[in-house]
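ingest -> validate -> predict -> emit
validate: passed (alphabet ok, no gaps, 230 aa)
predict: started
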Amino acid sequence: MTRHADDDALDQHAGVAELRLATGDTGLGPQNGALAEDLPLDRNQAILQAAKQVGSILKRNGHRFALAGSVAVYAHGGTQNLQHDVDFCFRPEDAEAVARTLREAGLPVYAPPEDWLLKASCLGQQVDLIFELAHQPVTTELLERSQELSVDSVFMPVLSPTDLVHSLVAAFSEHHCDFGAVLPIARTLRERVDWDAVRRACGDQPMPDAFFYFLERLEVIPSRPKEAQR
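emit:
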């Protein structure tokens, strides 16, 4: 991927210049505990710093990936109201290489009970390394649709608005159905989302369908013609 001049801003951050690794010299890797005192007090800024650091490491090592989750929404122009972690998505076949790269950079990586992601820690923040979105494996096509955007002055690939919204809506279930968290995202990205494509991808799943009805009533998206609802 293309390296931008803004990426060099990372190298100016006090105490984390050693994150710029390409040789696999683990002796230079950062220690999360030692860097804790460098974290900004604001949690949103802490999450952004972690996203920038991990994204920079992955770019330098040529991995295919895309930023997802709340930081991706921020990159697309959403408000800086980030959730509890950073999300990156990769193809399942790249899991071992991605984990090795991050470990060589000094970041702890481990496998949780869930079999669709790995977890890492950077600058005291949790980083989810996701290999399945919307109940489907991450594909090359999905990553190729990503858009290279600035994340607080560091450029990296970010899920397209349509894929990003689909990943959030398709996750709704009887056990996880927080419409309130996704509503402001839908409002922010609505003009850049192919809502017909999201509807088709979600099929007749009841929770996503209920959310689309909710968006229609709030006039976030246009209502479907009656014949299309049958």
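Confidence is low (pLDDT under 50) at residues 5-37.
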